[in-house]
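Usage

Read records sequentially. Each one opens with the input sequence:
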Amino acid sequence: MEKTKEVQDSTPAGINICGGDFVLSVVKDGGGKDKTTLSVMAPTAAKKQVVVEGAYSDWPPRQWNFFRELARRYYGEDVEKELERLEEETRAKKIAEEFPIVEDSAPPHFWAAHTLELHMSREGKYVRIVGHTYPHRAELRQMGLAWDARLKVWGAQFSEELVQKAVEFVRKNDQKTDPIKTGMVRCEHCGRWTSRPRQGTEDL
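and closes with the structure output:
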């Protein structure tokens, strides 16, 4: 559950919003945790500073929605629209930098919707390629992987050499999209994006 408070302290330099009338900053609280602040810099009747837990660059869509609603309530629609633009830019950067690797059976929690994922475990001694693999089955066989009908993945015994080959394969063939723009939702059970809303999905 997001927490918010309003204070009137000065705020460190951050990102200018609405031509510098507002500043968005990430600072540490007394416990060393990140918090995001939106502060009024220009002379205005709005004196409040909005503070929300977490760094905005790591927020899921739900927390961005919460923050934008507070900004609209206190500062108006222009601030809300500029924050929406910043959210899209932040998400686009995360998606561009993201590589879809899952280690040791951890649930995937990617920013993008990926057509291919690399799953690996040194302890479990496996390397697996998951996703839309059918067009690439010849190349996967050539890499030394075999189809596992039970798990519905291409897999093989773990080796550092195979991991490097798998990384190159996924980097070359994975196609990623922004799931928010295509109306997808994240399954809270498996962590994957899906285009079929159902019980157990949420815009996280």
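Summary fields computed downstream for this record:
- The chain has two domains: 4-97, 101-178.
- Residues 4-97 form one domain.
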